[in-house]
Amino acid sequence: KLHSRTESSSKAAFLDHSETLWMRMTCKHTNSPVIDAFAVPKWLSMSSGCILALLRWVSSFHGSLFPHLTLSSEDMIAEFSQVLNWSDCVVRAFAWHPHTDKFAVALLDDSIKIYNPKSATTPTLKHRLQRSVAAVQWKPLCASALAVACQNCLLVWHVDPCSLSTRPSSGCAQVLSHPGHSPVTSIAWSPSGSLLLSASPMDSTMMVWDVAAESCVPLQRVGGGGVSFLSWSPDGSHVLASTPSALFRVWETRMWTCERWPCVKGRCQSGCWSPDGSRLLFTVQGEMVIYALTFTDAPGQLSHSGPQAAAVVADLSETTFSTPDGDIVVGGEIQSLVWDPRGERLAVLLKGDPQAADRPAIIAVFKTRANPIFELLPCGFVQGEAGAEPRLMQFHPNFQHGALLTVCWSNGRITHVPFYFVSAGVPHFGLSGSPLLPHPQQRPADFVNQSLFTEFLS
Amino acid sequence: MVSTEQSCWFIRKVICWRAVASIAWAVLLLPPITLVFVIISKFSFLHPIQTISECLYLLTSASGIFSFILLCGVILIVGFLHLEYYTVIPTIACSKIALLGQLLHPRHFINSLVHCFMGVIVAWCCAVTMGLRYETLGYPCTESDGHPQMCLNEYHLILLLAGAFVGFSHSLLGVIYNMNYVSFHTVQQYKYLRFKRCLPLVVKCSATQALYSVRNYIVMYLFLGYIPRAWICKTLNLHLDSSVHPLDSIAGLLDLSLLYHLWSSATFLLLTWNITLLLFRIFVTEVYSFPVQSSFTEDSHQCLPKVLTEKQPMILKFLALQDLALLSQHSPSRRCEVFSLSQPGGHPHNWNAISKECLSLLTDLTQRLVAYHDTVATNGRAKSLSSGSERKTSSETSVTSGTEDLMSPRPVFLMKTPASVFARSVAGTPQSPLTSLFTPDLDSPFASPALRRLTAPVDQCSPWYGTVQSPHIMRRAPKLWSTSTDSQVNGSPTPSPASVPSPKPEPSKPSFLAQFLQNRKEQLPEASSQALFADSQAHIWALEGLSYLVQASFSEDQFGVVQTTLPSILSCMLVLQEAVDRHFKLPHASSKPVRSTSSMGDSTYKTLRFALRATLKTAIYRITTTFGDHLNAVQISAEHRKRLQQFLEYKE
């Protein structure tokens, strides 16, 4: 069944109460006739009017510099989320546990379900602050902690894996919030599990949370107007932080200094790190190419001998393929990039064009090779059922036989697409390998492995 | 300064210089702050240009320069006081009485008096720079009969007294909020960036604190203002001008410009002091990189393995542990030195020393937790294991008993005591009557039974020396004051004078005062848990360092030096994990402290136990994830293996 808004329909009956006491007081005062009887001095009303106009002017100027600031928070999450069409997506966020075979799924009704093949219970996490979930991530080196990026705060759930309860109480969640830091659109745990980063496009500071102590260190740099996407390199030495404007930063995590990378065209839409943290692939909004940055030096000296410019490693301009169903056009802008933990497969979610039927959103898979030179070799496409388009994808963090790509589709299904290969060897394709799948899922119509592995040569 | 004689190379070479650098920066920051203050206090919207020229003139005048020199002197003294009073382990008062004892302790009292005096000086400088009606204490006036005389300028007086009040209250709040506690940060940043980040907070804190102080001061002056005024008039032979309203009336104090000036000078005072404190904290907690091994024998005492085992300056131990945690994470070359073998002989001395010290720290914490749990279990409820006073007493006993062999069985206690502020004051002097008045000793009814139990074993030696805490031995200690009076009535605690000879026979029925004190003692339940984990930053680093080193050893340790200690590391962590889990099942242990943001006091110590719990779990997972099934080959007890299996299956 699809998880839609039905469960939360009662919410509409209540007004969201976010006014402060002061706001309510002023509201009351302006409405009350008693106060109106006292004439406000003219100069006071004049000067306050002037100040208000000035403030409005300043904020509109700020808004024209950073147009995203005028968006509503739901729109903003939809704009900056890694999920394609986040607002109508049934599965809003997905996260594999970094060490075991369990995953968390955030649904449209703001609940989170945790599926574990080894346990019969599927805990459902609900919290009154858990609204508009933009991202979820499990804490590394921990069995239970799950960080959730919500509209107004950050939640860290502690879900006891041995517990039989299907509805953990909201007491199991830590609420981390900081004034002005909302909506949170991206989170990243450090690979050592000690720190949690959070970012909001509204806030130009990036928060480094010490979750146990519930304290945060704001890291601020001028420019950009916010932070929209975070990605921590697997070796823990660098963090990619992209901003809503044409600029992204690469932070070095030892002393927390950063490098500015201005882009020519648009903002950095997505990025991913190679397993050893030495190479960063990223895409820029409005461009159809994948760039690469290489970090060869030891951490700490990033700014001295880092790369000078990003190199184009793949061009994904639109190409027409003829299939039995007719021609389809593949290519265009990129929604997100994921790299498998062994660094052998790169999956690219292409946005497509929702209006044109022959330009579906599609996942393109590349083989990656680091030696002798870094290159991306086209490997194939992943398509869903008719009418279903991919929205979100993630690689399983420790799949023994190769790489396992999990794709969330627009019709609410989640499928696992295995890639069997011997590491650094020739990949073995085909559906013949599917019976070996180690993850029987409880979800309906489970294993839809309709991927077309059309290998083509470029 | 008592500590100079016993100070080691580190204090002399590093800490002192860091303090000097921080003071120098504070002095350098003084001119801009003063300029801003002068502009703020003298600004008039009608003549902006005139204000600025006036300010510039004032700052270059002789009185301006003199007051500026005075301010520099004040900053120097404040910086010196920070160096003298700072601590890396907070003193946590477990009861209101203990807090009162802390406040009245002569060492803190002197500190408060000095602050009070410096507040007067700063206020005088403010008065001189603000000019106008605040400038002088006396002014010539004519009596009603036309006779010329000197009259008291009450505006000047009120400003000076405000300075004294704000200075005094600042130092009192400093004791209450542990302002002398220096915490270390999980996120390393350069000093400039850290300062830049903290500056707005400091300004905000200073402004709000000044507001509250001025409010309290105004109320006090309203009621008691005539006392200092009369006293000053009498001693300086000044007269009161009858034509001017006295200020200790509601009408006199409702002068907005006066209030504004009071507030701005209080803000200025607190801001300069708080910035000095901030700079001191930033400089002192800066990472210091110790060499892992040195090729010269004369430098060997500065190497990490040696420094880690040092007991004396706590800051040295903390910085060494911090360095260990960082090197284990970030620098492969230094890790390599840790795993290396000694050149003649081929012994892994570095690793042995480091792992031994870390393990002893963790074992110490485990024992402390077990002992606390036993205390709670025997009494049926949490007693205040008054860490502050416990440390005091134990450090006193250890210091006074000096070189006797009593020290040797309890290195653990010594290690965690010396940074206590009280330890230094009593160092060398055998418990003077003055200090013993304020430090609860064993015999006094102020000392909690937990405290007595924990200190009594100095004589008995056994419970703390043995690895396993025997609750039976502990229970033999007298329990006169152990529980509240009702349990005394039903006679469950039977004092056995044989075990500990020291306690005096107590009155069988406690007086009203004692009952009152007893009630006051029970008031801060969470504090005992905080006190237990007060120095846990060291344990956190030890856990991180060990676990990262073990993780790195999987691929980097060529000689297998880590393998030999792996069983003991694992079992130590698992035992600690069990103790911590048990501790968090106690009431109040898992309740989160209230967050206070608008204060300069660092409240990191309040959440250290949560940080320790998280770090411990992560550390065990780090080892199990790295080694995986290889851990089945490690020899540990069956119980621990079961526990470890839980971790291997990610079920903890």
From TrEMBL, chain A:
A GO BP entry: nucleocytoplasmic transport
Protein name: Aladin seven-bladed propeller domain-containing protein
Presence of the UniProt keyword Lipid biosynthesis in the record: no
WD repeat spans: 184-219
Domain Aladin seven-bladed propeller stretches: 72-420
Keywords: Repeat, WD repeat
Keyword Repeat applies: yes
SUPFAM superfamilies, per database record: WD40 repeat-like (SSF50978)
Gene Ontology cellular component annotations, sorted alphabetically: nuclear pore
A Pfam family hit: Beta-prop_Aladin
From TrEMBL, chain B:
Any one Pfam family match given in the protein's UniProt record, by short name: Ndc1_Nup
UniProt-annotated stretches for the region Disordered: 381-405, 480-511
Record InterPro entries: Nucleoporin_prot_Ndc1/Nup
Keyword Transcription regulation on entry: no
Main location: nucleus
Gene Ontology terms: biological process: mRNA transport; nuclear pore organization; protein transport
Membrane-related topology note: Multi-pass membrane protein
GO molecular function list: protein-macromolecule adaptor activity
Gene Ontology CC: one annotated term: nuclear pore transmembrane ring
Bias (Low complexity): 395-404
Record-stated family: Belongs to the NDC1 family.
Protein name stated in the entry: Nucleoporin NDC1
The organism of origin for this protein: Amphiprion ocellaris
GN (gene name): NDC1
